[in-house]
Amino acid sequence: MILVASFLGSAGPAAAATGPSQPKPGPVPSSWQDPLCEVDGGPWSNSPECVPPKEVPQPPTTPPTCDGAVFCRATYEQMEKAGFDTSVMRANDKAMMASLPVSLAAAASVTYYLGWLNFYLYNNTNCSGTVKDSNHCGWVYHKYQIFVDGNPKPGVHTSSYPARSGNNDPADMWTPNTGPQPRSWGSSSPGVSSGHWRWGWMNGSFTGYDADASDPFYPGKWRLDPWTLWKGSGQSGTQRSSFEVHGGTGTHAFSVARTQGCVRLPSGSITSLKSMWNNYTDNR
C-alpha cells in the first residue's frame, strides 16, 4: 500500500533526508511498539528494533460512516457549492494521483478505489469547524478516485475532518515536540506548508490501523512513513520522528490539547476515517 499524508502544496526539492543514527544510550526498545520508538527526535526511532514485522494483525473492517466528517465523499462541485475554494486542491490532487502507483486486479468488472490522505494547514483561513492555533487551521482530507475495469472515472471524492498538528505553526516544524509535522518536500503556495508520507506504514513496514484505547490516542492511530526525518545532514542536523494520525479523549481531546507533532482528529472523526480506510482505500 502506498498512501500519502500531506500539507497542501505542490512538489518541489526535498527538504529533509534520512541521516545517520544517533548514539543510543539507555534501555533498548523491547519491540516496534515500545514507547522508545515513538519519541520525537529520539535515538531509537529509525533503528532495527523499531521495524515492525511483515504481518501486523488488523482489526475487523467497519462499514462506511459519515459521522465525524464535514464533507463526506463529496465532489469538487459539491464543495464549491458549500463555499469552499477547490482551485489549489484540484492542482495538488492531480499531482498526487500522478505520483501514486496503481496496482489493479486483472479480473474484469472490478471496481477499485485509489485512496490517499492529505493534511492541509491554512494561514488564518478555512477555520470554521476546526481549531485555530498559532493563526493556522488544520484539516485532514481522505480522497479517492474510482477505477472500473482498470480505467479511472472522472472526479475525486473527498471527506474532510477537523485536524491539528503540534502548535499548527509551520515556523516551528523543525522544533521537536512542539511544531507540526515537517515537510519532506517544498511548497510553492504562499502561506501554506507541504509534506508527503505513506499512511499506515512505519520504517518501511505496513502497520495499518492500530486500535488504541489510551487517552492520548483514542480510539486509534495510523503511523506515517518516513518515520524519521532530518533537516541538514548527519548528527549536526535536526531530527524529527514518530509521526502519526490519531485521536484523543479526556485531557487529550481534540478541542483542548495540542500534540507533540502528530496529527490529531476528534475521536469520532477517527472512527469515520477508519471506515474510509476500510472501504475506499483499496491500495492499502
Return the structural class.
Answer: alpha+beta
SSE string, helices as H and strands as E: HHEEEEEEEEEEEEEEH
- Poorly predicted tracts of residues: 1-20, 184-195
Largest sheet: 10 strands, mixed
3D shape: globular
Give Rg in angstroms.
Answer: 18 Å
Write the layout of secondary structure elements.
Blueprint (H helix, E strand, L loop, with lengths): L75 H6 L5 H13 L11 E13 L8 E2 L2 E13 L2 E2 L4 E9 L32 E2 L1 E2 L2 E2 L2 E3 L8 E6 L2 E4 L6 E4 L2 E3 L16 E2 L2 H13 L5
Parallel strand pairs: 13-14
Antiparallel strand pairs: 1-3, 2-3, 3-4, 3-5, 5-14, 6-10, 7-8, 9-10, 10-13, 11-12
List keywords for this structure.
284 residues, ten-stranded mixed sheet, two-stranded antiparallel sheet, disordered N terminus
How would you describe what is shown here?
The longest helix is centred in the first third of the chain and has 13 residues. Helices cover 11% and strands 24% of the residues. The chain is built from three helices and 14 strands. The chain is of the alpha+beta class. The chain starts with 75 loop residues before the first helix and ends in a 5-residue tail after the last helix. A hairpin with a 2-residue loop joins strand 7 and strand 8. The radius of gyration is 18 Å and the shape is globular.
